[in-house]
Amino acid sequence: MKVQRPKGTVDILPGESGSWEKVESIARNFFKRANYREIRTPSFENYEVFSRSSGETSDVVSKEMYDFNDKGGRHIALRPEGTAGVVRAYVENKLYGPDVVKPFSVYYIDNTFRYERPQAGRQREFHQIGVESFGSDSPLADVETLMMAHDLLAELGVKNYELHINSLGNAQVREAYHDALVNYFTPVKDQLSEDSQRRLSQNPLRILDSKDERDKKFLPNAPKIVDYLDDESRKSFKTITDMLEQLGINYVMDDDLVRGLDYYTGIIFEFMVEDKNLWESATTILGGGRYNHLVEEFDGPETPAVGFGIGEERLMLVLKEQNPDLFQEEGIDFFITNIGAGTEFKAVEVARSLREQGFSAQYDVDQKKLKQQFRKADRVHATFVITLGAKELENGVLNIKRLSDGKIIDLSLEDINNMQDVINKLED
RNA sequence: GCGGAAUUGGUGAAGUGGUUAACACACCGGUUUGUGGAUCCGGCAUGCGUGGGUUCGAUCCCCACAUUCCGCCCCA
């Protein structure tokens, strides 16, 4: 049978999985220091969990959802984003209860699915690293989220990104602004691009970031969301941006920034990276915002919340260019070669002992010629080679060689039990 | 979902309507089964994405499909 992976999926092979491990462990460690704990939710949910939260007319729901009916006739969807499932779990497990410390803050590293045409940095199965924090409407919670996003990218080694922020305000603001946009664009509808004519009825906000020249000429005079913000949103937004400045976090006010999901209220933001080697135009690697009504939408109590998600594949593409250290192949500490009758089992024992001492060690299960064993040691980037020869072993002697410069010293069998001392001796 | 390009071994690739598909790297074996990264010698695609068709004959022409990449839509 000829086999092939499904379109839009990738195998992360051992040559690369180490880099993923490093990135994820940096993230986990980072979240731990901020006291965000991990949450793991199902890869699939009932279809409505996503359709209701993201919005029926959003692209994610209307054309990118990976959904199917299971054998019990349930309408299931693979998660297209991380937030909805976490909110569902928050409500279902009554994490809003008084015995849970607020804010309730979690992170996740999950696979995620969208049915789309694949491109570089866009797959049908991909991974998101995200955080969500429930229970606080304070601007400090927004700042916390933004600061974490910024500092995590910095710690990972992402360099040339730009933080774009905007505020969508509460539901009434969005509605008023929505109407203002419709009123503004409807008289000139015939002059808009086909895409924007469609957007006008489905999601007029999206017209704002159109790349079509026919639409662009109407944008400068289009209504601005800031003019529709209520006092409270305005004040909160100001507090947030003031703090960002004091924290030394650069940002760009972006009136045209709209996010693809309907559930956002208040601040929204994206970290965009521009790199001509990777993408024609600036690409978002991290996006997020405040969503104060999603918990209610799932029949939970009124609970403000804020979070962000990082596209891990895109992050990896950027890091490969900007922090190549993360992608260096790691070798092993010891390779044990052996030659002569009765030495092969000793090699097994020595490897076991070294591993117990915390070193990485390998021996040649194929028992090739000594020369081949050395070649293999090179290929696995061993730092040291220990050689067990039949003649020497009779006298309890063996030797160790440092591959970088060929330095060799003799050891006794007992030295194996304390290799750190041997290494120190070699370094002298 | 729409438009475009690509698809030859483990990798980078050359190539032609007709007997053995170039070259390079990598890999494997040998070069005194006891010490690697060098040299030299040898091996390494019955096969040119998959399935059809045209032809005496196709990797090379035609069609369909698949996958990848690029742009659009949208997004991570």
TrEMBL record:
Keywords, ordered alphabetically: Aminoacyl-tRNA synthetase, ATP-binding, Cytoplasm, Ligase, Nucleotide-binding, Protein biosynthesis
Enzyme class: ligase
Enzyme Commission code: 6.1.1.21
Binding site for L-histidine: 81-83, 114, 128, 132, 259, 263-264
Substrates-to-products reaction catalysed: tRNA(His) + L-histidine + ATP = L-histidyl-tRNA(His) + AMP + diphosphate + H(+)
Compartment(s) where it occurs, according to its Swiss-Prot or TrEMBL record: Cytoplasm
InterPro entries from the UniProt entry: aa-tRNA-synth_II (IPR006195), aa-tRNA-synth_II/BPL/LPL (IPR045864), Anticodon-bd (IPR004154), Anticodon-bd_dom_sf (IPR036621), His-tRNA-ligase (IPR015807), HisRS-like_core (IPR041715), HisRS/HisZ (IPR004516)
Nucleotidyltransferase found in the keyword field: no
GO molecular function: ATP binding; catalytic activity, acting on a protein; histidine-tRNA ligase activity; transferase activity
Cellular component GO terms, alphabetical: cytoplasm
Pfam families, per database record: HGTP_anticodon, tRNA-synt_His
Database matches in SUPFAM superfamilies: Class II aaRS ABD-related, Class II aaRS and biotin synthetases
GO biological process, alphabetically ordered: histidyl-tRNA aminoacylation
Subunit structure: Homodimer.
Family the UniProt entry places it in: Belongs to the class-II aminoacyl-tRNA synthetase family.
Protein name per the record: Histidine--tRNA ligase
Gene source species: Lactobacillus johnsonii ATCC 33200
